[in-house]
Amino acid sequence: MIASQSLELHAFDDSAPLAGRLAEQLGIDCQTVEVHRFPDEESLVRVRSAGAPAAIVLRALDRPNPKLPEILFAADALRRRGVGRIVLVAPYLGYMRQDRVFREGEAVSQRVVARLLGDAFDAVVTVEAHLHRIHALAEIFDCPAHSLSAAPAIARWCREAGHEPLLVGPDAESAPWVRALAEATGLAWIVGEKTRLGDREVVIELPERLPIGGRGAVPELALLVDDIASSGATLAAAAKALRARGIERVEAVVVHALFAPGAEEILRTAGLARILSTDTLSHPSNEIGVAGSIAAHLVDELGLGSRT
Ligand code: R5P
């Protein structure tokens, strides 16, 4: 068990809002990791550490190419200051999609990244890792690694919002956690079938029969639930399919608001009335906080600090 005064939190600028909320939950200060980018785009990283027994490094690994080496450098810098135990909190963990060789000659980037992080950190914590053919991070990491569910935080938000949408998972991959959300809220749910035709092109088919809404009609409100909004193609296709079935208002909630350029326009054009996200990635759509879930895991499972 590491007492709060023996625990440091170091965060990169791009994850500052969530880091501030996590620091508040744990009742500790948050130090910003300094990054200098040289003209040739190499990075120099510097931490302000007193060499505590344990430290958390927080950074979301979206658009990960410059970020990945920088968190490895931060871990090295903390070890050089004498920190004994270093935990990475990467609320979004990039490079998890490529979990096998799909076409001869490809790399399995998921394994490479897990190996690098496992060598540098003593534990890794993320939220809703995008896992397909492996079921838990423990299968690929040498250090303790855990993917937290965002379902409890989203379920809390649904209950507070007080409306009763039909929950819709756009594809089979979303089924386990749309089901978890339905169980926590008692809401009806369906899952579509997705065929991906390209990076920005998908087709979604909904089940033939939709659950009946109030007064025996189609539901008035559907809430699409997905882990990631990237190009926006998945949510846009699902929103169009739902509206074509006569559902008046379609909203969406995603865990990771990646939003590639142009995604928001695609979603608006598809008639999505509103999109909300958790704060794993800083974005104007953030409405649902995950700092409480992360703090609970750090304290209860990893024995780091205490909650305020
Ligand atoms: C797919 O397996 C994921 O759960 C998301 O549906 C997907 O990553 C969303 O990507 P896009 O917004 O580009 O369709």
Explain the overall architecture.
By secondary structure, the protein is α/β, with parallel strands linked by helices. The protein is 29% helix and 26% strand. It is built from eight helices and 16 strands. The protein has a six-stranded parallel beta sheet, sandwiched between helices. The protein has a six-stranded parallel beta sheet with strand order 10-9-13-14-15-16, sandwiched between helices. A two-stranded antiparallel sheet has the order 3-4. The radius of gyration is 20 Å and the shape is globular. The relative contact order is 0.14. It binds ribose-5-phosphate. The site of ribose-5-phosphate (R5P) has 14 residues, from strand 13 and helix 6.
